[in-house]
Amino acid sequence: xxxxxxxxxxxxxxxxxxxxxxxxxxxxxxxxxxxxxxxxxxxxxxxxxxxxxxxxxxxxxxxxxxxxxxxxxxxxxxxxxxxxxxxxxxxxxxxxxxxxxxxxxxxxxxxxxxxxxxxxxxxxxxxxxxxxxxxxxxxxxxxxxxxxxxxxxxxxxxxxxxxxxxxxxxxxxxxxxxxxxxxxxxxxxxxxxxxxxxxxxxxxxxxxxxxxxxxxxxxxxxxxxxxxxxxxxxxxxxxxxxxxxxxxxxxxxxxxxxxxxxxxxxxxxxxxxxxxxxxxxxxxxxxxxxxxxxxxxxxxxxxxxxxxxxxxxxxxxxxxxxxxxxxxxxx
Length: 331
Known about the structure:
The chain is built from 13 helices and twelve strands.
C-alpha cells in the first residue's frame, strides 16, 4: 500500500511538472523558417515549450491561420489592417532578411548584375549568359554562350511578392505588365519551379546555368553563388549583413498601421530586403503562448538569428511590438 502511494505521488508530481508545457503550431513563410527553427530549439531547451513550424509558403500561412488550423502564420507579404480585422488577426515583424539572385554557372563567381541586366533577364529579353548587357559589367569573366535557366517558386510566396515588389519599383515595364504578386505569370520562357525557398535553392544547385531568387539564409546554407547587384544609388552591392542593415533602416514599421511595410528598393544598401511577419489570432486558444515565444525570441535571443543570415530587429522596434501586444490584450 505504501509503495502504491509513493508511485501515485510520483505520477502526480510528473503531471504537475509538465502541466505548464505548451505546444504551439505554426506554418507559412519558408523565408522565416531558419529563424523560427533557430529560436524554437533554444526555447524548448530552456522552457520545454514546443514550437513546431512548417515552411509551406506565405499564402498557406495566411490561409491556415485565418482558418484557425494553426496557432500562428508566417508571411513575408504583410496584410493591411482591413484584412487583419476581417480575420481577427494581429501582425508584427519578427526579422529582416534579403532575397538574393543565386546562380549556378561553373567557373563564374563574383558576377555583377546591373538593373538593366536584371530587368532584361526577368522580362525574357536577355536569354544568354554572355549577353552584352551582362558582359559589360563583368570584364575578365568568361561568360558562357548558354541559355539562362530561371528558377522561381511554385507556391504562393511572400518571397515572390517581395521580389516582384522590388522589380515593380525598379522597372516601369515590369510594374505595368506584371506587378507585385505572390503568384506570377513569368515572362521568361526557359524556367523551372521549386517549392519553398529551399526548393528553389536545391533546383539552382542541381541545374547548371540557372539563376533564381532565394532568401540569403537558404542560398548561404546551400553554398550558392550570389550575384553582386546594382542598387538604387547605382552602386554594385554584395548580399551580406552589412548591406542588409543599411537597407533595413528605411523600414517604416509602425504599430498604428499593424506594422504594414514593404522595404524593397530602399534609397541605400541592398535593394531586395524584406521583413517577415507573424500573424496571430486575437481570439486564438494559444495566442498568448505564441506571444510568449516571440517575446522570448525578440528580447532574449534576437541576435541569434544573425548567424543564419538575418538582420535582427532594432530594440526600438521590439518595444513598439511589445506595446502593440499589450494594446491587443495578448500580453
